[in-house]
Amino acid sequence: MATERQKELVRLLTRNQRKIFAYIYTLVPHRADAEDLLQETCVTIHDKFDDFETGTDFLAWANRIAYWKVREARKNFARSKVIFDDRVMDAISETAATMQAELDQRHEALAFCLAKLNERDRRMILTRYERGSGVERAAAQAGRTIQAAYKALTRLRQLLMDCVTDYLSTGDRPAEG
C-alpha cells in the first residue's frame, strides 16, 4: 500500500514529467538521449524524494536533478556533432527555466481562447493540429472545401492570436462581451 509521500511523488511526477522532458531535451542533441536521461532523472527523483520539501517548487528541484544528469552524461555526447560547452549549457538551462512559466501562461491562455470558439471552429482547428492530420482532414470533418478551410483556419489563427495576446496583456481573463 502506497504511503502519502509516495502518492505525492507520483502526483508531482505525473504532473511535471513532460516539462522535465522538455527541459532535458533543450540540453541534449537527440530525443532518444533525452528520453534515457528522463528515465535516469526519474529514478534519482524517486531515490532523493525524501530530500524534497513539500510546498516548494518541485519542477525547479526536478530540473536541477535533470541538469546534473545531463552534465554527467555529456561525456557520452562527445562523439555527437552537437555539443555545448558548460557556459552555453548553463545559459540554455537558465533560459529554459525562465521560459517554462511563460509557456504555462500561454497554454492557459490558449485553452481559454479555444473554449471561447464555437464547437465547429474549435473542432476544425483541433483536427488541423492533431498529429498526423492536416487541412484536408479538417476540411472534410467540417464539411468545407479545402479553400474555405484555409480561409477559416487563417481567420481562426488570427482570432486565437488576438485572444491570447489580450489574455496575456491583462494578466487575467479578458472581459466577456
- The portion of residues forming beta strands comes to under 5%
Calculate the mean pLDDT score and round it: 84
Count of separate structural domains: 2
Q: What is the name of the CATH superfamily of the largest domain?
A: RNA polymerase sigma factor, region 2, helix turn helix motif
Q: Give start-end ranges of low-pLDDT stretches.
A: none
Global shape: elongated
N- to C-terminal separation?
A: 51 Å
CATH class call of the largest domain:
Mainly Alpha
Structural class: mainly alpha
Helix percentage range:
over 70%
How does CATH name the architecture of the largest domain?
A: Orthogonal Bundle
Q: Which quaternary structure do these chains form?
A: single chain
Number of helical elements? 7
Structure description:
The chain contains seven helices and no strands. With 177 residues, it is mostly helical. The chain has two domains: 1-83, RNA polymerase sigma factor, region 2, helix turn helix motif (Rna Polymerase Sigma Factor, Chain: A, Orthogonal Bundle), CATH 1.10.1740.10; 99-177, Orthogonal Bundle (Arc Repressor Mutant, subunit A). Helix 4 (86-116) crosses helix 7 (146-170).
